[in-house]
Amino acid sequence: YRVKTTKLGFFDDRKPPYHKSTMISEYLRPDRERMFYEVTDKKGTKRSESVEIGDNEYSREGDGPWKVTRKATPDLAKLLIPLGKADQSDESVKYEYLYLGKKELNGMMADLYQVTTTRSLRSASGDIINPSVKKYWFDKNGRLLRTQIDTTDNVTRALHQEIKEYEYDVVIKIEAPIK
Residue 79: pLDDT band by 50, 70, 90 thresholds? Predict the structure, then answer.
């Protein structure tokens, strides 16, 4: 299957985004994965891509040459180290769940759900309120078609948006880019 993730960052005037990134991930069982990443900001546009096949990872920056490395085996002991717990005594969280009905998405009807999460953090300089609205579109078989997360705060009033689009019936071919 394929997942396209688009992230946008807007200042409070909602003019064209100051930041845009796109990542396309493709997965092919049992052990093949391809990722393409592109980010655009005031410095310009950068691209990278990687292909994983078995224990080999192929990667490149922009149109540069492909490099091949062996995937490292994660050290599980390091992953299991307790990270500690932050003091959340000044934070409150409120959730709201809604079913918004059937909506058209890419020419098909989908069930649309929305979860609103509002985090409030008390600080010496005033309360920081951080609402996040997550929308989920599902097809008639219960497969996730799209998610959209919009996050703002009352301090910067900037908007951060993440959209993921899922494709399940696409023909994907993942091969090593170099021998």
Answer: low
Which two three-digit tokens encode residue 56?
Answer: 């080999």
Mean pLDDT across 42-66? 94
**Cα separation, 23 vs 135, whole angstroms:** 19
Residues sharing a CB contact under 8 Å with residue 36, sequence separation 6 or more, in sequence order: 22, 23, 24, 47, 48, 49
H/E element, 11: none
Dist. CA 20–CA 75, nearest whole Å: 33
First CA to last CA across the chain, in angstroms?
25
CA-angle at 27, arms to 107 and 172, nearest 5°: 65
Mean pLDDT of 103-116: 96
Structure tokens at 142: 């219960």
Distance CA 16, CA 83 (A): 38
* Alpha helices per DSSP H over 1-145: 76-79
What stretches of the chain adopt beta strand conformation (E)?
A: 2-10, 19-28, 32-41, 44-53, 56-61, 67-70, 91-105, 108-121, 128-138, 144-152, 159-167
pTM recorded for the entire structure: 0.81
Q: What is the pLDDT of residues 2-25, one digit of tens each?
A: 999 999 998 877 788 888 999 999
Contact at 8 Å (CB) between 119 and 127? no
